[in-house]
Amino acid sequence: MRENVKNVAGCFVVVFLIVFVGLWLTFGGNKETQKVELTPPQVHVAPIVELPKTYEIAHQAPEKYLSYDEVKNCVKDWNKTCPEITEYGVYGHNRKDDELFYLRVGTPGCKKVLIHACLHGDERLGSCALLGIMGRMLHDYGRDEDVTWLIKNREIYFVPVFSPESYLKSRHIEQGDPNRGWAYPGSKSDNTSSPIEAMKKFVLEKKFDALVDCHTFGEIVYFPSILSNEDKDAMKNLTSKMGELSGYNNGPIGRTAGYAIDWYYWKTNSPAVLIEFADGPTHNMPIQKVAPEVEKTYKMLLYFIREAPEIKLKGVVANNNTPENKPQLQPLPNRRIFRIFR
User: Fold this and answer.
1) Tell me: the pLDDT tens digits for 1-46?
2) Is 176 helix (H, G, I), strand (E, B) or coil?
3) What does the alpha-carbon distance between residue 263 and residue 86 come to, in Å, rounded to a whole number?
4) What CATH number was assigned to the domain covering residues 68-325?
5) How far is CA 47 from CA 41, 50, 51, in A?
6) Neighbours of 210 (CB within 10 A)
């Protein structure tokens, strides 16, 4: 019995040694010991998003009507405060060698928008309201999502004073009404003065994608009177939405062709509007009316800057002398208007 137990134990030992040696030869032996390296857990870190820089700009509407030099100095100060998103520039001179200046706000290479004011020098509220809107946009950059997007995706040229010589003094520029007689297809005359010629050259050079002419008064957004039928619906839709945002009326400028926005539309095939700020009843409105107009029209102008450059217009026919191609002048919209002509 004892012999049998010894034999079984001996067999078990032999089997164990055989298995052990086999495993040792397989995983050990002359092979180098394999090191197991522990991989640290993967930690996903969100990328650092650089927030836009903000600027401390006095964004309230001006408390007084500024002179030409004061407007120019204000614009230069904004450029010094916000050099990353602005540029002060000069696109020409008038006959007295005054600078015709602009403030570019936005990103070079993006769609271009032109907004100018005080084509009629005695319509001072339009210029002052535009300054209020400019300051508010600069202040809202980095604070307001919509404004930040616009400044990153648009190249906006603000011209708060169209004609330094007549600014705050006269409706006329160099003896003529500056918003009459601009050439359009089929017309026989063209309005010429040093500020107008400089602006025309500027518009053709920059090839703006949308344009605004700011006036006073009437609370209305006009589109050109010489629109082709293909473009009329697009401009109606654009100005209707602008009216909803501001409470302003909208419609074709009508009665006579030859306004600045007619020429802009003809030469650029881009949306062009004339905005009549405030409700009147006089051009020389008190400064207290400026701030409410800035508040009322701010979102309307932001909407135009965003949407108008995306609109593709057909434009007018180059040879518009045939009767069927002549501009169809429209009556003024039904609204309390204090002047017969714009």
Assistant:
1) 555 545 545 555 555 556 555 555 555 555 444 554 555 555 555 5
2) strand
3) 28
4) 3.40.630.10
5) 18, 9, 12
6) 26
* AA letter at 80: K
- CA distances for 299 relative to 5, 43, 283, 296, 302, angstroms: 102, 43, 24, 8, 5
For residue range 313-330, list pLDDT tens digits in order: 999 754 443 333 344 434
- DSSP labels, 95-146: TT--EEEEEEEE-TTSEEEEEEE-SSTT-HHHHHHHHHHHHHHHHHTTTSHH
Q: How far apart are CA 125 and CA 282, in angstroms?
A: 10
Backbone angles phi, psi at 216, to 5 degrees: -145, 125
Question: Over the stretch 167-226, which tens digit does the pLDDT of each residue have?
Answer: 999 999 998 899 998 998 888 888 889 999 999 999 999 999 999 999 999 999 999 989
Order the strands of the 111-117 sheet from edge to edge.
Answer: 86-93, 99-106, 154-159, 111-117, 210-216, 272-277, 220-223, 249-252
Contact 259, 180 (CB under 8 A): yes
Residue with tokens 């400026």: 290
CA–CA dist 196, 182 (Å, integer)? 9
Angle formed by the axes of helices 290-307 and 124-140, nearest 10°: 60
Measure the CA–CA gap between 141 and 145, rounded to whole angstroms.
8
Least Cα distance to 282 among 125, 162, 61 occurs for 125
Q: What residues does each domain of the chain span?
A: 68-325
